[in-house]
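User: What would this chain look like folded?
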Amino acid sequence: MLGIGSDIVEVARIRLAVERHGDRFLQRCFRPDEIALAARRGAQGAATLASRWAAKEAFVKALGAAGPVAYRDVEVVHCDGGPAVLRLHGRAAEALRERGGGRVLLSLSHEREVALAVVVLD
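Assistant: Here's the prediction, encoded as structure tokens.
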């Protein structure tokens, strides 16, 4: 195993960031498909974004000291109705290659107040 990372985030913290900073926050931290999914989920949109934020943080923690990675370079996707997986872009993909990583395993969960993510790099 190359690394493991976890993160837990308050849904209200992400909701407040969206209310205060709107599109500027969303565009800086999330990919278009992540933003669209949150919008489709209506009242649950903040929890959707919070779990994705936690996944981005967990990935960076699992990666360790590999230089700065933009949150937007780490994308949570669902392939063919299966479990959520990370799709890496730009510096995130580069940093994983530099560390010799291959598989990226992801687990997401959220409740009313908190979202949790665990990432394992293999």
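The chain is about 45% helix and 25% strand. If you want, I can go into more detail on any region.
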